[in-house]
Design goal:
Blueprint lengths: L2 H7 L14 H12 L13 H5 L5 E5 L3 E7 L7 E6 L5 E6 L3 H5 L7 H8 L4 E3 L6 E9 L5 E9 L4 E8 L10
Antiparallel strand pairs: 1-2, 2-3, 3-4, 5-6, 6-7, 7-8
C-alpha cells in the first residue's frame, strides 16, 4: 500500500467517522484508485494486464520470439517503471521494476535517446547544465533502503548517453532556514 493510501486510511477515527471535511464517498473513491494497481502474475493473459496495472501501457515494444514488452510508469510523481513481458501466446512471463539503482547504474554509455525512452519511459524532468553540452534527463527512484534518489542521465548533442550521475532527492527540510 502506498504512503498516500495509508495516510488516507489513517483519516478515520476509532468510531469509523472521517476527520475533517473529507466525505466518505470521496475517501472511498480515492482509496479504490489506490487499490487498483497490482502486479500481474506470470501466466496472466494480456487482456487482464491493463485492469491490474491501472490502464493501457505507456509503450509497447516487440521482443524476440514474437513477444512484447509493455512499459508502465508511475512518473512524473512516482518512482517506479515496470516492464511487463509477454510471450507469443500473449501471457505474462515476467514483471520487472527497472527504476532502481541496479538498472540505472548500468545504463550503457552510448545508448541512444530512444533506447533510454524505450527502457525507462519519459523522465521526471529534462534540464540543461552549463558544464555539459546536451540534456540531463532526471528519473526519481527509491534505493534499496528506501531513500529517495535521483538519477541524472546525460544525453549529449549526438543524442547518446554520455554519463549517469546520482544525487539524493532534496526534502523540505533541506530548504528550511535554521
Amino acid at each position: 500500500m502506498s504512503a498516500a493510501c495509508a495516510r488516507l486510511k489513517a483519516l478515520r477515527t476509532a468510531g469509523g467517522r472521517l476527520v475533517g471535511a473529507v466525505s466518505a464517498l470521496t475517501l472511498a473513491l480515492v482509496l479504490s484508485g489506490c487499490a487498483m494497481f497490482s502486479l500481474p502474475a506470470p501466466g496472466t493473459p494480456a487482456a487482464q494486464v491493463p485492469a491490474a496495472m491501472g490502464g493501457a501501457p505507456l509503450a509497447v515494444q516487440a521482443l524476440p520470439n514474437s513477444g512484447e514488452r509493455w512499459l508502465y510508469s508511475t512518473l512524473p510523481m512516482g518512482r517506479e517503471v515496470y516492464h511487463v513481458d509477454l510471450d507469443a501466446a500473449r501471457r505474462v512471463t515476467s514483471v520487472t521494476q527497472v527504476l532502481d539503482f541496479q538498472h540505472l547504474s548500468t545504463t550503457p554509455i552510448g545508448w541512444t535517446r530512444n533506447q533510454v525512452l524505450d527502457f525507462y519511459g519519459p523522465p521526471y524532468e529534462i534540464t540543461e547544465v552549463a558544464s555539459f553540452r546536451g540534456k540531463v534527463w532526471t528519473y526519481r527512484f527509491n534505493d534499496a533502503i528506501n531513500l529517495r534518489r535521483m538519477a541524472h542521465i546525460h544525453i549529449g548533442v549526438d543524442s547518446r548517453v554520455a554519463k549517469v550521475m546520482f544525487t539524493d532527492e532534496p526534502t523540505a527540510e533541506d530548504f528550511r532556514m535554521r
